[in-house]
Design brief:
Domain Transketolase-like pyrimidine-binding (chain A): 33-208
Number of strands of chain A: 14
Helix content of chain B: 25-40%
Subcellular location (chain A): Mitochondrion
Largest sheet of chain A: 7 strands, mixed
Distance between the termini of chain B: 56 Å
Pfam families (chain A): Transket_pyr, Transketolase_C
Strand content of chain B: 5-15%
Number of strands of chain B: 12
Structural class of chain A: alpha/beta
Strand content of chain A: 15-25%
Radius of gyration of chain A: 20 Å
Helix content of chain A: 25-40%
Oligomer: heterodimer
Number of helices of chain A: 15
Structural class of chain B: alpha/beta
Protein name (chain A): Pyruvate dehydrogenase E1 component subunit beta
EC number (chain A): 1.2.4.1
Shape of chain A: globular
Chain lengths: 360, 390
Amino acid sequence: MASIKPSSLLNLASRTLNRRQFSFTTPAAAKQMTVRDALNSALDEEMTRDDRVFIIGEEVAQYDGAYKVTRGLWKKYGDKRVIDTPITEMGFSGIAVGAAMAGLRPVCEYMTFNFAMQAIDQIINSAGKTFYMSAGKINCPIVFRGPNGAAAGVAAQHSQCYGAWYAHCPGLKVISPYNAEDCKGLLKAAIRDPDPVVFLENEILYGVQYPMSDQALAEDFVLPIGKAKVERPGKHITIVAHSRAVETSLLAANELSSKGIEAEVINLRSLRPLDFNTITASVAKTHHLISVEQGWPTAGIGAEILARIMETEAFFQLDQPAIRLTGVDTPMPYTKSLESAALPVPKDVVEAAKKLLKIK
Amino acid sequence: MKKLVYNINKALGLISNAKNNYATEAAFETKPFRLHNLEQGPGTNVTLTRDDALKFYNQMHTIRRMETSAGNLYKEKIIRGFCHLYSGQEAVAVGIKAALRPHDAVITAYRAHGWSHIMGVPPLGVLAELTGRQSGCARGKGGSMHMYTNNFYGGNGIVGAQVPLGVGLALAAKYKGTDGVAVALYGDGAANQGQVFEVYNMAKLWDLPCIFVCENNGYGMGTSAERAAANTAYYTRGDVIPGIWVDGMDVLAVREAARFAVEHCATGKGPVVMEAATYRYSGHSMSDPGTSYRTRDEIQEVRQTRDPITSFKEKIITANLVTAEELKTIDTEIRSVVDEATKKAKADKEIAMEELTADISSLPLEQYIRNISPFDPLPHKRIGEAVNFK
C-alpha cells in the first residue's frame, strides 16, 4: 500500500466534499458529527426547551425532511409542532410570520432558498420591517432556514446564493454557518433570538462530518450571532469566507503552508451583522486580504468587506489591494466541467495568495 | 315586513308611546344573507339594546369625523404620502368588532384608520400618526398604513400580504389552545391575489379559526370589481370554505354575520369567508379624486340611500331606542374630541432625531448603525415594548 502523501489526503478531502452524504470517519468517531445531525440536534433541543418552537415547510414532517435535516422530529413531536405544507411558499411564509407576530417561535424551512424568492416580500416587508414600523411594539421571532447557494448538477435556477440579498436589509439577522459546531450553536442562537433570522445552510456540507468538542455537544451550546471565528491562525495573509468557501479556504491554506505561507482563515459565521473587527485585527497582522465566496461578485459579500476596508484605518494596513474571489458572473451551467469552473476552488485561492504576496 | 317587526316589538312590550320613555331593546330585520357551502346562516331577525345603539352610533360617527379630519389635513399638506380613507365603510369595522371577544386578533391592509380606532387607538393616536408626530400610536414612525395596538396587527402596505399573516394569527390561536379567532381583512382588489388562495387552502386543510373578510367596496383603486375578477362573488372564492355575503352598510347585519362566523371558527369548524358589500365615498387614496371611474351620481346615491350612519340613525330613532337630541349631543361631543385631537396632531412635535436608528431589532447585536457616511455611526436605541421578546 502506498504511503499517504499530503497531496493525496487533499485529493481525498476534495473528492469527499463533492459527494453527498459521504461520511468521512476518523478513529475518534464518537466526537464527530455531520452538519445534518448538528442541525437536527439543535432543532430537537430547542423544541424540547420551548413549547412555542415549531417547524413548518415542505416535507419536513412525514418525509423526514427533503435533506433529512428534520429526521425523526415529526415522530417525536407530532403534527402540531412539525407541519407539512403544500407547495406554497408565499402563503406558508406569511403564516409563519403571522404566527411569530402572535408570539410563537416558528422555524420556516425552504427546500432551498431559491424557492424563498416567492416569499421574499413576507421575509423582508412583513418579518424584517414590522418591528421598526410599529415603533418597537411587534417583534417577529422567526427563523427562515434551508440550503443556500450552489449544490451539484442542479443548474441555474437551483444554485443561487442569497447571502448578499438578505444581508442588505436592516431588520434581518443573517447567518451563514460552515461546520457542524457552527450549525448547532448558531441555529440554537437563531431560534432563541427575538428577531427574524435568515439561516443559510449548504447542501453539500450536510453530509460532512466535523469534530465536535464536548462543549459543542452539550445541551445549552449557543454561539453568538454576529461574531466571526478565526478557523486557522496565520501571519502572511488573511482569507475571509463564509459557508462552503471556508472549506475551500482551509484547503488552500494547507497547500500554502507547504510553500511556507501561513494564511489566517476567518470564518464569518454571520453576514449581518458582519464581524468587521475580526477582519480588521487580522489585516493589521497580515497586511494582505482575500475574500472568498461562492456567490456572484456584483454587490456581494466580498464587495461589502472590501468597501469597509477602504473606508477605515484597515486600508492603511494593506500592503496590496484587497481582492475578492467569487463565483463566475454567470448563471450556473449544468455541464460538469463548466460547473466546476464556475466556483472558486482551493487552487484559485492559492494562486491569488501567491500573486498578492508576489511569490512564484 | 315592517308590520312583522312592529308586531314583534309590541309582543315584547317594548314599544312605548310616552315621551322620554325609551325602549331598552328593539328588533330589526336585515337584508337576507347569501350563503355558500352553508346549510344555515346568520338569522335576519336581530335585536339591539339601547346601550349598543348608542355605542355603535358613537363608534361609526367617530370614525367618520376622524376620516373627514384626515382628509382635510391631507389637503392642507400636513399629512404626507398615502392616506386611504374609510368613510362609508364604518359599519363593517363596528359590526365585526361588536362580535369579537377581547382575545380575538385582527389584521387588515392599508385602509386601516377606522380599524385602528375600533381596536383601541384613540383619535389622537390615529391623527398624530398620520401627521407623523410623537403622540401617534407608532410615534409617527409608521404613518397611515402602519398602526398597531393590542391584538391588532396593522395596517399593512403590500396588497394581500396581510392575509397569510392573518392565517398565521389564527394558527397561533389554535396552537395555544385558546378559542380565539383571527379576522383577516382584504379588499375586492386583493381578493384576486395568489397568496390569498394559498392560505384559503391551508386554513381549510388545517381547520384554522380564520375569518376571511372581503371588504368589497366595488373598486380596486380605479378598477371596478367586474373588470378585475372573473368571479365577483367573493364570498364563494374560498371554494370549499363556507362563505357568507352580508350587506356591509348595515351594522346590525354585519354584527350578526360576524357572530355567526366567530361561533363557527371558535368551535373548531375551520375558516369562513365573509364578503361585506360596502362603499367608499373617497377615492382609493387622497391622490385619487375617485370620479374618473365612477359617476358623482353613484356616490350621491349611496350617500343618500345607503349611508351606514344615517340609516342606522333613522332606525334607532324610529325604534325609540334613542332620541334625536341625544344623538345631537353625541355628535357635538365627538366633534369636540376629534377637533381637539386634530389640533394636537398638528401642533405636536416629531420624535427626536435619535429615533431614526431606534427599534430596528428588538435584540440589537451591534451598538452602532451605519450613518450616511462612514465617519459618524449612530447608536441603536431600544424604546418600544417588543411584545414577543421573552
